[in-house]
Amino acid sequence: MAYDATKLKDFEIAEQAEKNMPLPYEWQEKLGLQKDEVIPYGRICKLDFMKIIDRLKDKPDGKFIEVTAITPTPLGEGKTTTSMGLVEGLGKRGMNVGAAIRQPSGGPTMNIKGTAAGGGNALAIPMTEFSLGLTGDLNDIMNAHNLAMVALTARMQHERNYDDAELAKRNLRRLDVDPTRVEMGWIIDFCAQAMRNIIIGIGGRMDGFMMKSKFGIAVSSEIMAILAVAHDLKDMRERIGKIIVGYDKKGKPVTTSDLEVAGAMTAFMRNAINPTLMSTAEYQPVLVHAGPFANIAIGQSSIIADRIGLKMFDYHVTESGFAADIGFEKFWNVKCRFSGHVPNVSVLTATIRALKMHGGGPKVVAGRPLPEEYVKENVGLVEKGCENLVHHINTIRKAGINPVVCINSFHTDTKDEIAAVRRAAEAAGARCAMSEHWLKGGDGALELADAVIDACKDEVNFKFLYPLEMPLRQRVDAIAREVYGADGVSWTAEAEAKAKAFEENPEYKDFATMMVKTHLSLSHDPALKGVPKGWTLPVRDVLIFAGAKFLCPMTGSISLMPGTSSDPAYRRIDVDTETGKVLGLF
Amino acid sequence: MAYDATKLKDFEIAEQAEKNMPLPYEWQEKLGLQKDEVIPYGRICKLDFMKIIDRLKDKPDGKFIEVTAITPTPLGEGKTTTSMGLVEGLGKRGMNVGAAIRQPSGGPTMNIKGTAAGGGNALAIPMTEFSLGLTGDLNDIMNAHNLAMVALTARMQHERNYDDAELAKRNLRRLDVDPTRVEMGWIIDFCAQAMRNIIIGIGGRMDGFMMKSKFGIAVSSEIMAILAVAHDLKDMRERIGKIIVGYDKKGKPVTTSDLEVAGAMTAFMRNAINPTLMSTAEYQPVLVHAGPFANIAIGQSSIIADRIGLKMFDYHVTESGFAADIGFEKFWNVKCRFSGHVPNVSVLTATIRALKMHGGGPKVVAGRPLPEEYVKENVGLVEKGCENLVHHINTIRKAGINPVVCINSFHTDTKDEIAAVRRAAEAAGARCAMSEHWLKGGDGALELADAVIDACKDEVNFKFLYPLEMPLRQRVDAIAREVYGADGVSWTAEAEAKAKAFEENPEYKDFATMMVKTHLSLSHDPALKGVPKGWTLPVRDVLIFAGAKFLCPMTGSISLMPGTSSDPAYRRIDVDTETGKVLGLF
């Protein structure tokens, strides 16, 4: 029944599979939903999560399965492919299963050929809509976020132009924002390096307020973080009102509530709060909610999607961003702490390709052909690279979870290479399954599905890496040593001063620690593969997301605004004007 | 059957009416559409215009009715209210009727309390969705537009950093954009005066290209202009590829096609090309497509919406922006020229309030109570103000159309005031109808409906103000004298040099002339009411929209980016977190 993934491109498989994708009313019947719980958007739909939660509140939660990965090559190691394959495999075993994944960002879609929809027979469909904005959540985030900046900059202009008496006529008090301490920037959903550092408000007295400003990519927005961690609309409204846009001249935080803009921001998020329903290529339900980029954002599918997924499905698969050192660490210490959900098992995705890179294989560059080491057997490189895999297994075990290692197989993998991974994984105490979902769909993922079903019977003794009482700098030290394998942490004077101030403020005691670090290495340096030794994690700044309740240590040189390359993907994208079909996306 | 508009607020009437608004599948039956021609977006839907046009291509067009207005007060004179009232009135007369209106912009919605959905019993519903993004067309425009700027700025960075050999490796030729001649800016759908003049690209060699830049409001985007005038997807694709982003160092235009980004931009517009279907409060169909702001944009509902409206309805009402000197003038000389559609009649909306202002009444300021002159009888002010009305009647007659003046009545209007308007309109040769659609819905608009039905029997001898062969500066002179009543036109040296260069280039011979001028006066000065005499129109710049095929003379000091006031509407907007309802929008 599977499509021939060795001959067909992903988008060709998707096109075939999409022909029979359930329509909104068919999902409604298939999932036993009420009519008004399904909100159609063309051929896809959103689910009214408040109605579903309310109806199913007494139903016990299903099994909770997280999917993460080893440190990837720049090509990605198929975390979404594995999530989709696992769902398809559990489906073949007759289970009531579904998943929650993250929505891709327009930045990478327009910059790097490809998608975040999985691949081969383990795809999320419809692929074009998934890659190009879906039901508009990212646009809603952009509008909500940028409205706060409109409010801030207009207010600074008016406060400069008017005296207190004039302000009082409009029922405004002077906020007195310090223009050198504006923390928030604007967002756009593209890789726009030219907007990283800008000066705004040039002109006369009616042209805003002149100051430095910045753009980040949309997924790095605090509103995206809030969408990922909010419990419901009430919680989202409260969090949006606590976003710190900057500080006044006495050092006191100025928030979106001070700007009286938090209600209007929430109005723009009224539809985005509902997860979108998509499908695997074998027609199991896939919830899409919140965004990617665990390196610079939380990069988790949302707590709201997990809340309804755990009620609707007996096995609910949720995807964390990037490698286990950041994606799983945030799932573990941030998302699970906020949600109260306890996972039954984690699936750690690995590919032979990435293990060879960690073993010392040549550099892998997106868009260039793979060096020979990656397409011919080389057991030695794989064996050496397994130290990265074992490091991540040990990290997950620190949470009290024994992971299932999934070898996401590729047709160039050899028996001996796969056997080497199995040996290493099992020696580290983990289950291991080779999975051919890319080639065979659910039928290829039965070993993985069985390993997960079996692992879900284990007792989980879930524990966080650090208690909330631990001060920020100690927490970062714990994450650096225990998860990344660093010898310690070094702080710039500015970052340390900020960290100290945050530690001393009782309001921030229960804030999560949300690391900003490259996913391409366990360290802060993307060039260091395997398990880097004898290094110190440099922290150069600490951001505060007071609405999301995050303190975000910024490590290395990673930026909240990626750049567009000299050979970007948009060059090859077009529309067939007869059919309306988008070409060249994948 | 009408709601009590003197007691209920617009949003309360809308809430009642929305309870029985047809659902997508009900519209499908009601309008005799095929199942796959209706694309639901929650409770509302888009219509697949290509399928509908194709199915109905042999059906003759219905009657084509344009709605415009006299020079308005800053409060607006109810052009959309009159469009909705007229549709409801024609509906009461048993006609198969529908309308095409423009989608509001987030800028005014967040800045000035109110909506562009009409009012009283002459409303477009659902109002909240209409006011907050509808089916995402403005977001699509924003993404398509800003992607071009991402491509431009990234390319400028890479061309600075790489030599020709490095560029050739990526199959790129040097475009050599002149950073002092970048014409295109970024867009955002808010009034963000702080973004009018900015400097971007500050930082190192991977942080873009340092230069001046700017943001305009989304509706002023050339992509919005293209959406308004495109004939179909093929035409849209071609136009998007011709957008001039700037000039190279030899003065040659650099386009989106040169940046290889036009296909990807079109991909973001694939859904926006389909009009959205809304409803009057009496459940006639209302197509919503393209944007407002005839002062700084084309400000017309789209040609695509008219194309399907004229096929689907026997009477198709289309709305032009703002006052007849700009909204009607652009409908007449730009939109009808591009579409080939010939209108049967124009409806010229007037209110007693606006006529009094033109007669010398005190200043009207949004958000402040109306001065006494506007709420008590004052026939003298009305009579004097009618010179503005008569001026617009004469303009419309120059197109070969005899307009129907609609007095959009308000409960404070008196019999003698209305009689004064009738006398003036009829003396100028126009039909005149007093209409109470605000109070009574369709039942209040029967006189207007009958006048329009009658006028549609007139023979129309439609003629343009100027032939396409007329050079740009002569055209502007003709518009200034014949439509605005100016004594002539003055050009800055820069504007004249640009105009001359455009005139000499044979590629721009058939481009439309798209004036940028305030709507608050016949002149360029918003303070001058009535019919200003003895003045000259100052042109300070000429923009080129080579994809839309517009040359845009910029008059007076009007900006493409409005400002957010010191008491903006977002202060009063919030969300009811129990029900998800948006509060305080209206």
Helix content of chain A: 25-40%
Give the low-pLDDT segments of chain A. none
Number of E strands of chain A: 25
Radius of gyration of chain A, in angstroms, nearest whole number: 24 Å
The coarse silhouette of chain A is globular
Mean pLDDT of chain A: 95
Question: What is the level 1 CATH name of the largest domain in chain A?
Answer: Alpha Beta
- Biggest pleated sheet of chain A: 12 strands, mixed
Largest interface: A-B, 84 and 85 residues
The CATH level-2 architecture of the largest domain in chain A is identified as: 3-Layer(aba) Sandwich
Distance between the termini of chain A: 23 Å
What kind of oligomer do you see?
A: homodimer
Structural domains of chain A: how many:
3
Helical region count of chain A?
20
Please identify which CATH superfamily of the largest domain in chain A we are dealing with: P-loop containing nucleotide triphosphate hydrolases
Task: Bin the strand percentage of chain A.
Answer: 15-25%
Classify the fold: give the CATH topology of the largest domain in chain A.
Answer: Rossmann fold
Would you tell me the structural class of the helices and strands of chain A? alpha/beta
EC number (chains A, B): 6.3.4.3
Keywords (chains A, B): ATP-binding, Ligase, Nucleotide-binding, One-carbon metabolism
GO biological process, one term (chains A, B): tetrahydrofolate interconversion
Organism (chains A, B): Desulfoscipio gibsoniae DSM 7213
